[in-house]
Design goal:
By secondary structure, the chain is mainly α. The protein contains 11 helices and no strands. The radius of gyration is 51 Å and the shape is elongated. This is DUF4407 domain-containing protein.
Length: 366
């Protein structure tokens, strides 16, 4: 039963193949088994590849099954259409398009399995890329907020500098009226005279202005700090919202790109393995000598070709004979006077009937 199934997978004519020897049947069963297991590998590979795309087991299995059936049908078609000829060059020329197609199929099958085999290494590459993308994303977003924050910080620094300048001026007035009282500067008179009172009054007025300035600038600084805090919260939210996009950077194309960054030699040998599996039925048919099945198939096809050629030739002969007979018969009839007189009489009767009908129509229209 299993042998019959694999012979069916090989695309061979089961009626002819069952009339062949056991060895011939085993050869085609082996070819069919290669076709079948290649389709199984295609199913596994495409299911994994599609799972990385859809992230759904059901969808991946369904599409993988469809792809496996497609590969199975293509391989079966490729193997079944290669006919053994008496010239290896003609056989190779016949198989060349099919070998190219087999190479394409091997690449499609091998790539997803490579991604599964090197999954850990690919994940490491993707992690490094995600970290780099996270840092780059933060820096890029910071460019939108840094100028505004710097401007606000500069405003705070200006307000503090204004307070510091006013405070320095007030301290200078304080030193002035103290030295006036001590007699070490100004009027050089010891004691609290009119000059001292005047300078003390200036200091007290400046001190009051300083206190008002501190309170006003403190309120301004508090408002600016609130704006800075709001910008920092907004920046953090933007970074947080964009992070899932970076975390989701592990789709099929990203994994293929990451795989290309790994050493090429292991991937190349895996590709060669699948290429050998995919092309093995074709190579086996090309290298195998002309067997019993090929001879019987050629005999049956040549018999059909001969029979069809005979039928076509017979139809041509029948057509030629019939044409010659018709020409001879109608030629003899054209020379007979009785036929001529009969056709003339019938034509005269027809013309009379037409004239009568025309006359009746004219009378009715009056």
């Amino acid at each position: 039963m299993l042998q019959n199934f694999f012979m069916l997978c090989s695309g061979a004519d089961s009626t002819i193949l069952k009339s062949c020897s056991e060895g011939e049947q085993n050869k085609y069963a082996g070819i069919g088994a290669t076709v079948f297991f290649t389709a199984v590998m295609a199913f596994i590979a495409s299911s994994y590849a599609l799972y990385t795309v859809f992230d759904s087991v059901v969808a991946a299995v369904l599409f993988g099954l469809l792809w496996g059936l497609l590969i199975f049908n293509l391989d079966r078609f490729i193997v079944s259409t290669i006919k053994k000829r008496n010239s290896f060059a003609s056989e190779l020329l016949q198989a060349t398009p099919r070998i190219v197609l087999a190479v394409i199929i091997a690449i499609v099958i091998a790539k997803p399995l490579e991604m599964k085999i090197f999954e850990k290494e690919i994940n490491q590459v993707l992690l490094e890329e995600k970290n780099a993308m996270t840092l780059a994303n933060k820096e890029q977003l910071a460019l939108q907020y840094t100028p505004a924050v710097e401007k606000l910080n500069q405003a705070i620094a200006d307000l503090k500098a204004e307070v510091a300048a006013q405070e320095a001026e007030t301290n200078a007035l304080y030193d002035t009226y103290i030295t006036e009282a001590e007699g070490t500067a100004g009027s050089m008179l010891l004691g609290k005279g009119p000059v001292y009172a005047e300078k003390r009054e200036k200091h007290d007025a400046a001190l009051a202005e300083l206190q008002q300035l501190k309170e006003a600038n403190a309120m301004k600084i508090s408002g600016i700090e609130s704006q800075i805090s709001a910008l920092e919260v907004e920046y953090a939210d933007v970074v947080k919202n964009s992070q899932p996009i970076i975390d989701g950077f592990d789709g099929l194309m990203a994994r293929i790109t990451a795989l290309e960054k790994l050493p090429w030699l292991p991937s190349f040998f895996i590709f060669l393995l699948f290429l050998a599996i995919e092309t093995s039925p074709i190579i086996a048919k090309l290298l195998a000598p002309k067997g019993e099945y090929d001879l019987k198939l050629e005999d049956e096809e040549s018999a059909i070709k001969t029979w069809v050629a005979q039928k076509v030739h017979q139809r041509k002969q029948v057509l030629a004979t019939d044409t010659a007979l018709n020409e001879k018969i109608y030629g003899e009839i054209a020379e007979e006077e009785a036929v001529y007189a009969h056709k003339k009489r019938k034509a005269e009767e027809l013309l009379k009937l037409q004239a009568d009908a025309f006359q009746e129509m004219q009378i009715k229209s009056l």
